[in-house]
Amino acid sequence: MKKISLLFLILFFSFSSLITMAQDIRLPAPDKKGGKPLMQALSERKSVRSFSKSNLSQQQLSDMLWAAWGYNRPEQKMRTAPSARNTQEIDIYVALPSGVYLYEPSGHILKEISKRDVRTLTGSQDFVGGAAVNLVYVADMTRAGKKVGEKITDADLLWPNANTGFIAQNVYLYCASANLGTVVRGMIPKDKLAPALGLKAHQIIILAQTVGIPDN
Known about the structure:
Elements lengths: L1 H19 L4 E2 L11 H7 L13 H12 L1 E3 L4 E2 L10 E7 L2 E6 L4 E6 L18 E8 L17 H20 L3 E5 L4 H8 L5 E10 L4
Antiparallel strand pairs: 1-6, 2-3, 4-5, 4-7, 5-6, 7-9, 8-9
Helix pairs in contact: 2-4, 3-4
């Protein structure tokens, strides 16, 4: 009887663990042949601050994240945006209604960080909480040569700031090409957002960017 009870407990906790496991999202392959011509996308690029509450499809998420910071030369692990000294210190955290995810280009997946909807914490403007996606650009300064616990100065953030700008512009161009809306933002309650993302002291929030379907 004890053996049966023990077996039941093992099976129960194993099943419970499966239920509570992180639900990563394996994105479909990005469509690298679609979209508008570059000059047309540049002509239509703009900031949008009014969004519908409709979610993006997984294909749209896939295309956007690959355009932003995916591997365009996977055999060399080189990306769609440049980074100084190829440090690739920027991570993209993706805030969706279903939770927070970290974009990992090697497998082209969204790795679940939390099931919490933190969209309202990604900015102080009213529209951020209802938009489909909020991207948070985070610099892991250990990849930029800083040691854990070492002070991070404004000068240390020069290249992470620039690198984030390259990535954000890629998102702008993708959104113009795909008839989506986007705006990059610096008004972020970092003291609340950082712990919600599980960030450590050497992980610095640089900017956020809202993406969604324009409400017009």
